[in-house]
Amino acid sequence: MKKLLFFLLFSPILLAQEGIFSKDPIINKENWNKQRVHWGYYLGFNSLDFKFDYLSVTEDIEVGATTGFNVGLIGNLRLAEYFDLRFEPGLYITQRNLTFPNITDNVDRLREVKSTYIFFPLLLKYSALRTGNVRPYLVGGVSTALNLSSNEVAPDDNYNNRFRMTKWTNFYEVGFGIDIYLEYFIFSPSIRGVFSMDDELIRDNDPNSPWTGNVQSMRTRGFFVNFSFH
After folding, report:
1. What would the pLDDT profile of 147-188 be if each residue is shown by its tens digit?
2. CA-CA-CA-CA torsion for 37, 18, 130, 177, nearest 10 degrees?
3. What is residue 69's three-state secondary structure?
4. Distance between CA atoms of residues 156 and 206, nearest Å
5. Environment class of 65 (CB within 10 Å of its CB; exposed 0-12, middle 13-18, buried 19+)
6. pLDDT in tens, 9-49
7. Could you tell me which of 117, 121, 161 has the C-alpha nearest to residue 139?
8. For the segment 110-151, what is each residue's pLDDT rounded down to a tens digit?
9. Which of 23, 37, 59, 88 has its CA at 20 to 30 Å from residue 127's CA atom?
């Protein structure tokens, strides 16, 4: 994470040295966007939390989000001059800390929800007109994700200190970024919001459970910041 933050802080200096934002830059990768298919990879970080809806009025469950890590691959198919279809499978590691205000015991009131997702997003990318070595874009689409830490089939529940979620979840994603054409590769920082379309909570065996009994739905939401290289 320290290396990633260092890169984020000093990349503008490196890009300035490359002359990317000069008045009359040397055009890099001039015919890059004409190729039908190209590949890449990304590194980044995420911050996810949960949106809770309740069956009756109650104090909100507190969600403490942490910073997670992303890594994945990119497959890009050119559809037209301004449109591309993208498949970006990746591994996303994150943790959310839930505090249940109606539980007095310090151990039982806290649940550390560690999640390891494998995302399979299919995205449509719309790029603006390229200006010099810079080309901003919008991206959006849908994804499905496998939660390797879901505990969905575990017989134990919160009464045994085990928080359970669904193994598969569907999301929609929307975001924006910028393609920066360097001499040897394309660098693309982007930020993307992600929102679950499904209820991810597996209820406890006791329907009156203080952890899950009053929860109507629990959905992931948050954002990704990715640094892509092509």
Report:
1. 999 999 999 999 999 999 999 999 999 999 999 999 899 999
2. 70
3. strand
4. 11
5. middle
6. 445 445 544 555 555 668 888 888 888 999 999 999 999 99
7. 121
8. 999 999 999 999 999 999 999 989 999 999 999 999 999 999
9. 23
Q: State the Cα–Cα distance between residues 150 and 23, nearest whole angstrom.
A: 52
The neighbouring-strand residues paired with 85 are 77, 124
Strand, helix or coil at 13? helix
| Pair of tokens at residue 67 | 């910073």
Q: Which of 43, 200, 20 is nearest to 113 (CA)?
A: 200
Measure the CA–CA gap between 5 and 12, rounded to whole angstroms: 12
Write down the H helix ranges in 18-78.
Answer: none
Distance in angstroms (rounded) separating the CA atoms of residues 197 and 170: 6
CA distance 79 to 204: 47
